[in-house]
Design a protein that fits this description.
The chain has twelve helices and 21 strands. The protein is of the alpha/beta class and 486 residues long. It has a nine-stranded mixed β-sheet. A four-stranded mixed β-sheet has the order 13-14-16-15. Strands 2-1-3 form a three-stranded antiparallel β-sheet, covered by helices on one side. The structure holds thymidine-5'-diphosphate and magnesium ion.
Length: 486
């Protein structure tokens, strides 16, 4: 594959949209749609105001290529009905990388012909992980094309040196014109293509600036088209907006096969890669990485690493086993309460849903006799993790009570359970898995919701203690208990 160097500068788009309202306005032809740069909605004819979101002057003309056909890559399996019992799952070949965490998130590896989107805040580590991946696959013998609209070849080389990538079989293409990218891809199709980032690409035929929804949509469509036609995987990166959405959210998520979000607290070295959509595997699967001086490294035992910094007997800290896809993680929840000077006390939640925090505070005040009405409450999940399960309620409550009373939660105790408005501890899915993880990490007791079917936990020596009400949980959780009825 030849090495091509293409000017990085955007080609100025000097076709002002204002002209469109004039007589020169292009007429909607067949295979032409007008895409709103604000909401991604498309309409058949041009209008000054988007009929969906009401924004003015945001419709851009997008010509639909005629080669694109969603069905083409599925046609083999669509043409004939197959009995479910006869379907084999082994026929989905995958490119397995050296990163177990990355493979897990993808459901076992990269599926040829798939279009994968890796989205995240700028600076979170998208380019770093993809360069490592590209180096990995190149090393295994298949050529990789790394297209970058953000960095020059020498900048990428510096990064590659840091990551220990020698660069054999890895071809760099600094480019922003999708036409240049496609002609390079067609000239010498690689085994994997990486495009960093989709927002820097533009299509000459679309009259709006790079990064706009219509550009993103059209460039993604062309890459998708190419990936399906050649059966070569393409991985693209995408920046997220301040609101946390991928720029062009629905447009992109609907088109690609896999959507991975890279999350993490910029000040911590932890990075979580989460699959929010996967046509070839389960969603909500996570991969855990640590940013080091030599790039992102897999964290093989995240529970242990997450709890490594936890001080024994720390005040305002509780541990909860949460489910992340097929994996169970023990996570530390921290809380701090302090008398408020504001008429309405502050509630700050990092890593848990703010509304869940409000609920837990209200339940503690009204049902457990913990007066939080004049207390500021700050809750944080360590490691930059985000917990979306209500199963964390009980540990959030214990961490808050611990801080309020200035007494530690029993260091050998984990707690899991959803809180109801009457203070009851509600059942949660897959308790056994959670108990086992707590046991593996050496916890002695785990508070959990009452289970009507009395059963022996296989998580011994951990003692599974069922609690029915928050008051009971606070009584059991904050002081080490000698005689506990399991
Ligand atoms: P980057 O991959 O450029 O982020 P993105 O592509 O998502 O914008 O990540 C850049 C950050 O990662 C930067 O803050 C430096 C840090 N980093 C390391 O800590 N170690 C490394 O080996 C590399 C390559 C980057
Ligand atoms: Mg980058």
């Amino acid at each position: 594959m030849g090495f091509a160097r293409i000017a990085l500068a955007y080609i100025a788009d000097d076709s002002p949209r204002e002209q469109w309202g004039s007589e020169d306005m292009p007429k909607a032809k067949e295979k032409t749609v007008f895409v709103c740069d604000s909401c991604g909605n498309d309409t058949a004819k041009w209008e000054g105001k988007c009929p969906s979101c009401g924004s003015w002057n945001t419709l851009a003309e997008v010509r639909q290529g005629n080669g694109y056909n969603h069905r083409s890559w599925m046609s083999a399996s669509r043409s004939m009905a197959v009995q479910l019992a006869d379907v084999s799952t082994d026929d989905l070949p995958r490119i397995v990388t050296s990163s177990e965490e990355f493979n897990r998130v993808l459901g076992g590896g990269i599926v040829p012909g798939s279009l994968v989107l890796v989205a995240g805040d700028p600076g979170i580590g998208k380019s770093t992980i993809l360069l490592r991946l590209a180096g990995d696959i190149a090393k295994s013998g298949s050529a990789v094309l790394y297209v970058s609209g953000e960095e020059s070849a020498s900048q990428i080389k510096l990064r590659a040196d840091r990551l220990g990538i020698d660069g054999q079989n890895l071809y760099l293409l600094p480019a922003t014109d999708i036409g240049d990218v496609l002609s390079q891809l067609d000239a010498e199709p690689p085994g994997l293509a990486v495009v960093d980032s989709i927002q820097t690409l533009y299509d000459r035929d679309v009259p709006s600036e790079p990064g706009s929804l219509s550009q993103i949509r059209e460039c993604t469509r062309k890459l998708l088209d190419w990936a399906k036609a050649r059966n070569v995987p393409v991985i693209v990166t995408g920046h997220v907006t301040k609101g946390g959405d991928i720029a062009g959210p629905r447009v992109l998520e609907h088109m690609v096969d896999v959507v991975l979000y890279m999350e993490g607290d910029p000040v911590s070295s932890w990075r979580i890669l989460r699959s929010v959509k996967n046509r070839f595997g389960s969603t909500n699967e996570i991969g855990v990485f640590e940013m080091t001086g030599n790039g992102l490294q897999d964290v093989l035992d995240p529970s242990r690493s997450l709890l490594a910094e936890r001080a024994n007997g720390a005040i305002g800290s509780a541990v909860v086993p949460v489910l992340e896809g097929t994996r169970t993680l023990l996570v530390e929840v921290q809380a701090l309460t302090s008398p408020s000077v504001l008429p309405t006390p502050r509630r700050v939640a990092t890593g848990i849903d703010h509304n869940r925090l409000l609920l837990v505070c209200a339940v503690l005040s009204r049902r457990a006799g913990i007066p939080l009405a004049n207390q500021d409450v700050i809750v944080n999940v360590t490691g930059g993790l985000k917990i979306s399960e209500p199963a964390a309620d009980l540990s959030v409550a214990l961490a808050i009570v611990s801080s309020y009373r200035n007494e530690p939660v029993d260091p050998g105790l984990a707690a899991v359970g959803e809180l109801g408005l009457t203070g009851e501890v509600r059942r949660i899915p897959q308790l056994e898995r959670r108990l086992q993880e707590a046991s593996r990490l050496g916890f002695q007791r785990c508070l959990h919701p009452g289970d009507p079917i009395a059963r022996e936990s296989s998580a011994a020596p951990l003692q599974a203690v069922s609690v029915a009400h928050i008051r009971q949980a606070v009584g059991l959780g904050l002081k080490p208990q000698v005689d506990v009825i399991g």
